[in-house]
Amino acid sequence: AQARPLAEQALALRSDVYGTSSLETSESLVQLGVIEANLSLATDAIDRLSRAVDIRASLVDGPDPTLVEARRALGWQVRQAGDYDRAAALFDRALEDQRQIDDSPAAVADLMFGQASSLHDNGRLDQADSVFNEILSSIDPSARPTPNAVSALRTVGMVRRLREQYHDADPILDNAYQMSVRLYGQEHPEAIEARQEYALNLAALGRWTAAEEHLRAALAAAERALGPEHQRSAQIAGGLGGVLESLGRYDESVAYHQRSLEEKVRRHQNQDHAGVLSSLVDVGRALALADRVQEADDYLTQAEAMGQRLGSDRGVYRISSERSR
User: Fold this and answer.
1) In this structure, how many other beta carbons lie within 10 angstroms of the beta carbon of residue 44?
2) 62: exposed, middle or buried (C-beta count within 10 Å: 0-12, 13-18, 19+)?
3) What is the tens place of the pLDDT at every residue in 192-210?
């Protein structure tokens, strides 16, 4: 946030000195676009990065590192905006140029999993799997870890988990977690998140005790590094609540589900939201399983009303079923 006004000043100065369609101005557009992407200002970021790509592509002959970076950053932004075809095309072109600049696994990993993720999102699963497998074959878990290698492993593992390929995801997410610890340390946000992802996959495999151990350790690290009220801490608490439910420790699970709910209510400023609705149901279900029926009904009644306001017919049906049980 502090960097943005400085980058805006640099862009204005370079535009005045070199012109609005110069290489120097395109560099400032890339810098500002990346900052805005990190601030989740998607519309501004897409506009800056699109202009940078157009300017740079018209002026540069051959592979250019700044143009590769602009296409990479723009690819992630348009993918998040749901334009998967454009994202895949941007990653394809950036990858083609990067291979001519530096074809090492560390240099191309980020572009490859951007390409694969866009293909996956667009339903081109066979093509996506081919790229994902190429990424996996290029990474040596015993080698000195790099940020790109860790990110690539996490992405591939998460895709496998989302497809319910939990056994395939297990060694990938384990390696991603171990490498992130070697690269960043146990209490870095990246390592905490990687451990959380690995633990949730363990839970999906029914390895509840191991999942609990990893989630408790991740939660303790998140509380120390980020604070007990941080979104990541609350997300881990919610996952731990689900694991404790599966272990039959219902009273314990209630407190963790409530903690997740409270953070979502704060973040969404007491407004109706699908995430708040989901957590209301989690708390209500855990209370019911703990034989705290009246408390459970209070939460599920709130959830049912919110579901109706949100127009979630399927959600209301599920909540009504929970109440009936």
Assistant:
1) 16
2) exposed
3) 999 999 999 999 999 999 9
